[in-house]
Amino acid sequence: MGAQTNEQITLLTDYDPNSNYSVAYQTLYTNIRLSWQNTMQGQIQTVLLTTPAPFSGSAIAVANVAIAAAQNGIATILIDADLHTPHLHRLLTPNEQTGLSDILAASTSQSQQIISHLHKTTIPDLRFLGSGSIIQQYTESSRLLSIHIKIFLHKLQQELQEQEQRQHIIIINSSPVLSGVDTSLISANVDQTFLLIAKDHTTGIQAKKAQEQLERAHTQLTGLVMLDI
After folding, report:
1. Which residues contact 187 (CB under 8 A, 6 or more apart)?
2. Which domains are seen in the chain, by residue range?
């Protein structure tokens, strides 16, 4: 499957719904939606989109998939799990402070309401959790994710089921696969993982190594997405 962009990479809301840019992301979201194994009411799907190596347009691409999901009437939560080079908060909630790194550092205790940290955006049905105020070192982020990410995702889903009782999709942006183990730790705990391949930026070797690393983490690697830029 593919998503086409142009040289100026911007949010989907800046484009006409009938433009090629919008249609490409709507098609990508539809393909993700069709990959769901179960569409029963109230089900919550977790989807990770990531790149093999650093690419400046990756976070925007993930945000656009989340926007496309919300535009289709699905309650959507976008999480920026790139704890080292976060970008999405500047686009969606520039004044946002508390985020994933803060929640993980405080631990996901039973008394903590994760859902209360989700920030509304200007896009109906789309809420956002940024990477947080703490920029983590790689060793510390890996430690936190290995201990807490499974608990965090389980608790978030549990709160959504109990308090909102509607179908949700949780879309996660992360650091590049080959930059460390963070993405592998996250991918092992989500329903679907899609690897974003940036045309003329991602090499075949990078894509192959990233795929092998995700497979070693027992990732449910659902597909490769070609970003034609």
Report:
1. 48, 50, 174, 193, 214, 217, 219, 220, 221
2. 2-8+55-228 (3.40.50.300)
